[in-house]
Write a structure and sequence with these properties.
mainly alpha, 5 helices, 52% helix, 4% strand, elongated
């Protein structure tokens, strides 16, 4: 919204100051391994019990958003705490311990 504000230049400076204080965590090989292992565990836990049918299970059909799983994998990789009121993380905790807090 800084781009559309009446004080665009000043607001962009403020946005850049905030961004300089934020750590960004990319997706590396270890994160992708955690993601894949965790996804498999979630599908085994929440998916159909019949193995041949379970392989077609999609995360969204078991109530977990794909992006939230990437967030969880990144948090696990870097020992971070997830702060969210999204129930996907509560559901994930039924399968694997993740550091998750809801401040709502």
């Amino acid at each position: 919204m800084a781009q559309n504000s009446q004080q665009k230049a000043a607001n962009l400076i403020k946005v850049n100051e905030v961004l300089q204080r934020i750590n960004l965590y990319g997706i590396d090989k270890e994160t992708t391994k955690i993601y894949g292992d965790f996804k498999s565990e979630l599908i085994k836990h929440f998916g159909l019990k019949e193995k041949t049918k379970r392989s077609a299970t999609q995360l969204n059909t078991i109530g977990i958003n794909e992006n939230d799983l990437w967030i969880a994998a990144t948090a696990l990789r870097h020992s971070l705490i997830i702060v969210s009121c999204d129930s996907d993380f509560e559901r994930m905790q039924q399968v694997r311990e993740i550091a998750w807090e809801s401040w709502v």
